[in-house]
Structure formats: structure tokens, C-alpha cells
Amino acid sequence: MEKRQQPDISGELMKNRAAITKLASSQEARQLMGLLEGMDVQQAARSAVKGDTAALMEMVQGLVNTMGEVAIMAFTVGNKISAFSIACMGTFARSFGTFSSQNYGAGEYGRIREGLRVTVKFQLCACSVVALAYYFLSPYMIGLFLAEDAPAEALTLGFRMLLILAVGNFALEMKNSFDNALIGCGQMSKFMITTFTDLFVRVGL
Q: What is the 3-state secondary structure (H, E, C) of 79-109?
């Protein structure tokens, strides 16, 4: 079987210079750059591409640390709960990446489209279950990680964080489905554009 040549990501990005320039000059991008000043973003990005997201998570934690002790406490708890649910929901998108890769190599593009529709349906169902669990059970889930003498504000912030994540999970998992389709089909340049756009919007806001 003929081996597909890896796309030139930098070359593909240069073809979209207008879109990149517009994104880089946006208010969200400027806010993000101010927050990330002094952090080694390039090294973190290179590590993330290789599968090591520890540096990126450390950067996010550093941003949260500027918001105070209660915010740190709420973020830590919310992140633990969210990580578990995302790991469960993410299995659909990751499996679809393998599926799309196999069918792209075989030239069965129709199966990729059908697989994407099925994956999106599964993701919507999973996100709905998680959203209901966050809404009705989050005080109990947060209580598992907070000490008895923890400030009440930490519970409130944790609850608000999970409600925001409950809504955001729908967009996140839909994006993950399409991202894995792009990766499976070898469209790494488009995947990188969507990933950095997502980073600018979420962290910048």
C-alpha cells in the first residue's frame, strides 16, 4: 500500500494568512497573549502535539492561580469531575478517528460521513446524561472532594463551573468528533487551525 505523504502544516497555514492575521488581532487573542506572557507556549504546544498535555494544563492552572484561593479550590474539584466525564465521552470521538482513518485509506468516504452522523448522535446522548448529572448531582459530587470546613463559596463556584461545562461539553465533543475525522483523514493543517481557534476563544474569554 502506498504511504501517504504527510501534509506540510506550515505551508497550509500560510495559505490562510488572512484568517490567521484576523484571529491574531482579535480582542480574545490579545487578552490571551497578555495572560500567557512569560509562559513557554511553543514548548507546551510541541509537547501537546506529541500527546503530552501536562505543560498546557500547567499553564491553565497558572492562570487560575491568579484568581484566588477559593477559585483554585473550585477549579481543582470541577476539573477532576469534568476529567472523568470527558474521558468517558471522548471514547466515541477517539474511536471514530480510527474508523475514519481506515475508511479514508480504503476510499470509503461515504462510510466516514455515516460514521460521523452516528458518532454525533452518541455524543449528544452522552452529553445530555452528563449535563443532567451535573445539574442534579453536582453538590454531592463536589462534596466528595471538598473538606467539611471548605468555604461555601467554593461549592457555589464549583457548581457554576460544572453548569458551564455541561453546556460547553456539547460543543467540545462535537468539535472532538470532527477533529478526529480530520486527523484520521490526514488533514492536520485544518485540525491545527480549529485547535488554536478553540484555545484562543476559551482561554481568552
A: HHHHHHHHHHHHHHHHHHHHHHHHHHHHCCH
How far is residue 154's CA from residue 5's CA, in Å, rounded to a whole number? 51
At CA 168, angle to CA 178 and CA 160, rounded to 5?
Answer: 165
Q: What is the DSSP letter of 36?
A: T
DSSP code, position 39: S
Residue (of 84, 37, 88, 75) closest to 155 by Cα position: 75
Are the C-beta atoms of residues 170 and 85 closer than 8 Å to each other? no
Whether the Cβ atoms of residue 200 and residue 31 lie closer than 8 Å to each other: no
pLDDT at 148: 77
pTM of the model: 0.58
**Residue whose C-alpha is closest to residue 45's, from 205, 189, 155, 199:** 199
3-class DSSP string for 108-160: CHHHHHHHHHHHHHHHHHHHHHHHHHHHHHHHHHHHCCCCCCCCHHHHHHHHH
Q: What confidence category does residue 73 fall into, taking pLDDT thresholds of 50, 70 and 90? A: confident
Instruction: Return d(Cα 205, Cα 199) in angstroms, integer.
Output: 10
Closest CA to 86 of 158, 149, 18, 176: 176
